[in-house]
Structure formats: structure tokens, C-alpha cells
Amino acid sequence: MDALTPQEQEAFEQLSKEQFSDPALEQKIIAALQKKALVKPSKNRPDMKKVILQLAAAIALLISGYFLGKMGSTPPNPVADTNTYALFLYENEAFKVSDGETLVAEYTDWAETLGEQGKLVGAEKLADAVDWLGSLGVQNQTSKLTGYFLFQAKDLAEAQQIAKTHPHTNYGGGLELRSIDKID
User: Fold this and answer.
1) What whole-number percentage of the chain has pLDDT above 90?
2) In whole angstroms, what is the distance from residue 144 CA to residue 56 CA?
3) Of 3.40.309.10, 3.30.70.1060, 3.10.310.10, 3.30.70.120, which CATH number belongs to 48-179?
4) What's the pTM?
């Protein structure tokens, strides 16, 4: 095969950056190119089912955050004998969502229950883009931080009981509970 001209090389590189709006068409084109041995199967291609499920989970967190915002934009005044806790939500390849609407309903119900009890301080879905600033040795390579909830509890035992009721683990997600240190 002859070498590509700079213009052909640039056009070819631009094609690899374009997104197809019809996945079936894209698959047919890739299959035809593979059949003619013009391209090799990609081993780095993301599992579309997994991507869709992660997107559903992200949307669920976003909708939960929206409904929480509608309940009141100002956090409750902290009671002197309570502590604030952060509940971080993590996902990896084990995270499975078969029904995004059910997930949204469960997360929303959980947050509304805490809000009704006056314990919810805030919650947000985190963007997928990560700008890691520390040593790469400490970055978690297997799980992705996708959201968080801030809530109040009288002590760690109560915070653990609250965290255990969050539905995120029902889908294979992980939870990290951290106390927020008070800085006077």
C-alpha cells in the first residue's frame, strides 16, 4: 500500500474523531472493514451497555440533586450535638443498572427521607471529567467517584446506619463514609 499524502493522513485522522449518529451504521462499516482486513477489532472499545448503565446512574444522581434542590436551597442549621458526614458514591465495572427510573426513584426517596428528618445538608452528581492533581500512585484506578451526599448525624454509629440504607450498593456501587472535621 502506498503512503498517504499529508492531506489524506489529516482527513483519515479527522474521520477517527467523528461520531456516528447511527450505531448500527457504524457497526456495519466496521464489520465490512474488518472483513476486508482493513482494520483490526479494537480491544479498547468501551462496552456500550456499561456506558449506557453508567449514564443512567449519572442521570439518576443529577435528578436526585435537582429534587433535593427543590426541597430547599439552604442547608439546615447544624445542631450543636450533631456532626456532618460525607457519603461518597463510587462505581466500577460491577455497577449494574437495569432500570434507570427505579434507580432515580430509590435515590430520590432516600434523599427525601433524610431531608424530611432535617439531616440532609446537600447532594450532587459529580461530572465525569477528572482533573487529578496528586501523585498518580494514590489515584484509584478501579473505581470512579460519581456523587456525594452530605448529612448530619449525632455520631459515627448513626452515620453508618444512615449510610447502610443508601441504595447505591444494591447496584454494585461502593460507598465511602467520612466525617467532616469542624474547623474553628
Assistant:
1) 15
2) 15
3) 3.30.70.1060
4) 0.55
